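Q: Here's a chain of 344 amino acids. Please give me its 3D structure as tokens.
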Amino acid sequence: MTSAAGTQIESADQAREAAGQFRSIYADIKEQVCAMMVGQDAVIDGVMTALFAGGHVLLEGVPGLGKTMLVNSLSQAVGTRFSRIQFTPDMMPADIQGTTVLVETPDGGQELRFQEGPIVSNLVLADEINRATPKTQSALLEAMQERQVTAGQRTIKLEEPFCVLATQNPVEQEGTYPLPEAQLDRFLFKLVVGYPKEQDYAAILDRTTGGVAPVIHAATSGEDVVAMRDIVRQVPVPDIAKTYAIHLVMATQPDSRYAPPVVNEYVALGASPRGAQSLLLAGKVRALLSDRFAVSCDDIRDVALPALRHRMLINFHGQSDGIADEQIVEHILKTVDEPGAARS
């Protein structure tokens, strides 16, 4: 296809064409991913939404649910470089970023040469990220936010598209290091991967234990993903949808004018402006998938849970009462009205 990157969309016809182009590429990628993955439709859509919005994803779920398979399948469908980092307590930042090593030259001599780490890739699977120490976890921060890696005196610009998909086990906490709020805030989405439905098990077993494994073909390229990101950025956000996103984010902040009583009682720290950025960017992707070239309040509402659930810090009172972040977000969605809407 012809890359649309850098093309300014100025007419309704161009908007319809761009939206159709986006939906076509999205559908082609998802078709290839679903050739391997069974079920988990919401998780697949969440990961792909983050990819096209230019964000990163935290996948939470017990082992064996296909989180690694999902990321690997997505990289094959997009036709980009894929790397996997298995985090362990003894891992050091240089194991991620890269380090200078002594190598032999063709003439028999030796020289120091920088060897890039696995973070220098397009799709990076950070497996069991909470098993690494905070020092090593922080090695991801610069790459996720600045799209670059600094190792010693060397700075490496990361090639786009760049996306970190981190996994963590919510059950086994012994020997783990919970991610700090500053790092959680850099993830566009937090997606919870649940168990498959009963009707999905047969297909899962057929594809993973049969004699012929499904083949995933590259449905597009990294350049096309970058072009689609440019289209996403150009989707306009009406004032009503922007205001609704702001109100939802402020509702997570204790003592704000939009915070419901449950937030004031159970939340110690609310979402930052990155939460509103995530709502708008993800909402733009949802608008395109709905054949619209403008974001609605429904788009904002649809992405509110994965965009906000990890940006709130539940206080001790909330933890002792067993309050989950999902409950807080669902309560906010029920209590915060769309701008101009009359409460019944």
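Q: Can you summarize the key feature?
A: The chain is about 45% helix and 15% strand.
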